[in-house]
Amino acid sequence: MLLILCVDLDDDLGRKTEYETPVVGRDTVESAAVDLATSDPEDSDVNVLFQGVHLYDSIDDEAVEVAAVTGVDGSDVAANRAVGEEVDTVLASLSTGEDVRALLVTDGAQDESVVPVIRSRIRIDGVNRVVVRQAQDLESMYYTIKQVLDDPETRGTILVPLGILLLIYPLAILANFLELPGSSLGIISGLLGLYVLARGLGAEETLDRTVERVRTGLYTGRVTIITYVVAAALMIIGGVSGVQTLESMTDATSSITSVVAALVYGSVQWFAAAGITSSFGRVTDEYLSDSFEWRYLNAPFYVLSIAAVLHGVSAYFLGLATISYLALALTAGVLLGLGSTLAFAIAETRFRQADPV
Fold this sequence. Notes:
Elements: E1 2-8, H1 12-16, E2 23-24, H2 26-39, H3 45-58, E3 64-70, H4 76-93, E4 101-106, H5 115-119, E5 123-129, H6 138-150, H7 152-177, H8 182-201, H9 203-220, H10 224-248, H11 256-288, H12 298-317, H13 323-354
Parallel strand pairs: 1-3, 1-4, 4-5
Antiparallel strand pairs: 2-3
């Protein structure tokens, strides 16, 4: 048996006429369509009901029935649930032992959102969409735009850059009205450009993860938050110190190698202090979380080894140290790294063997 289901998701039939839904039977559906057309001639659901009657009359080689089911005005979830309940009522009223199949008649893409609900109750042979010929894609376009505006991800991808572009002209007018310097508008434009670039590269996800880790660390008492802040400050100081060293050695920095050496010579001790601070903070957190390993203590010694090597090399290229000092720095750096690795490997092995199995 074929059941022609006319779907009215927002219940125009129930709200604008006196009919109680679901409406079952050809004559009853036709009468309901006439009443709805009399009440509101512009309602597109009128076409749905008449199309259902038309399909009923055009099929004469098998058992067929036509019915109109409605949802509710407002929430799509509640409307889909209401349609499912009315479909159950219609199926219960059919006195037939044959398998029932459904042919849905709708007036647009919005009503077709109920298809999965109906398919869970009855097999669907097809969907017949009825639209006015003069505006065939109007409702579908409206529903597509509505979905785009309701999707947070799409809003951020399309509407945010569009809004930024639309803000540039009024910001220029405002800057001109307030007699602001041209650099102010340039700063605003640069910030907007950075935001659009960050959105395009997906940097906001990385920033969100970083903020979440920082917030979690604050609540769980992680030492690394403090040590990372101190390390960042030390690196900034190191960068400034490196630039100052370069400016004070203008006579000795005639090549790219000497320029790099001056920057390294002036900043390496600060960078080393930043590395040691951050590594000790990480080691402390690992110890407090009962996941400490002796090899973690290699990090600060590695930092000292690298700093010693870089300091000796940069001082040698700037003419501030002899070849003997360079050899001493290289030897000390290598021995410090190898010695810490060997010492902590032995300590880890012995303490692991001492633990009860």
